[in-house]
Amino acid sequence: MSDRNVTASLVHALSAFAVGACSAALANAELPAALKELQEFYRQTDSVKIVATVEFDIREPLFKGHSAPLVGTGSFEHQESSAMFRTRASADPRLHILEGFDIAFDGNDYQLYNSAANTLALQDPKFGDGQLLPVPTPMPNPFYLPVAFLAPDEDKCPGCQMTLEFVRQSPKWQSAEAEMRTLGNSDGVLKLNGGSRDGEQYEFAVRLRTQLATHVANDGPGGPAHEEVGVIERCRLDGAVVSDITFSDYRPIAGTKSLFPRRIVIRDLNPDAKPAERLLSAIDYLIQSVEINPKIDESEFVIKPRSDTAIWNRGVLQGARPMQGSSEP
Questions:
Q1: Sign of dihedral through CA atoms 133, 139, 144, 146?
Q2: How many domains does the chain have?
Q3: Domain that holds residue 37
């Protein structure tokens, strides 16, 4: 699923970064502190729960008969532990993008529940050649947006779900310094290889900033200066920005020393349009809560259908089948 198909948010949420070209000059190629801290943060995370509210701003029609602009709200919840995960997402039905999806993996089955159609699909976790089945997420998972430059979401796997295992094992961590030397970087701006989107090659520009922490463990003001990711841009090879992600309101996560942004805004852009017409769509996440290494019961990763849910098991319709202890997913 491309940024254009899911993006949304209020433009006023963007920080004061001036973006428009992914430019950078060759300089020091050591992995900066902000990226080292991100790498360590995800390495130390064995489980996570995150809840966010979402605001959509869609300026470009998504399909024939779909009017624009459209503004609406939604919600996003994700929990993950020991290679198992569950993601719930919904949006205002008037947006015509998703009306309630529940995606899970319990170690055995990939499960996709569509509340609008009341269908549950079960799939094997691997293809016949042993490769993991790419599982799209109904909208970008905000927990992984700070490492969007790891880039599983490309033509090879559009809209694919990131996982803790993917982030920890990504070869991008090892290749980043070499890429920075080759592509160039300057203080506060890193350039990294991307992949392809709609057949076109792209790069990432990661814009860093250093500022005083506005919150400490007791949620009060003050704190030492820290380096953080401010914006991640997806750029054409000519430097034009086709999408960006802006991070703000970093705060500590309870029980840790790590900071995490409480506001994340994704924009999908048309760099060839007039400045006032470049925004195609945007999605604005307000993080309500984030927990690191909570204990999660494995039953949370099993979607229990309703008694009248149509179940597709490996492509075979089994009809409505009640399940013991079933409830509304």
A1: positive
A2: 1
A3: 3-100+138-296
